[in-house]
Design goal:
Layout: E1 3-9, E2 13-16, E3 39-43, H1 45-50, E4 52-55, E5 62-68
Amino acid sequence: VVRALIQVETAEIRFQTDSGTTITAGGTEGSPAKAPGAVFYIYGVDDLRGVRFIRTGSTSGVINVIYEGVQ
């Protein structure tokens, strides 16, 4: 299984794995907001290739990513 473990730092973000839709800071596309300290996984090569992140406020979020199962 290919996946990425993601931890949010500094500021709230949202993400979307559907690369066919544009994600916007003030919109409702993508995931619910993830607060600093949140930890979550994204699974699968297609979702990892298509994932896009965006800040929800005026401060840019920073993420830490650990890829697992990559060969």
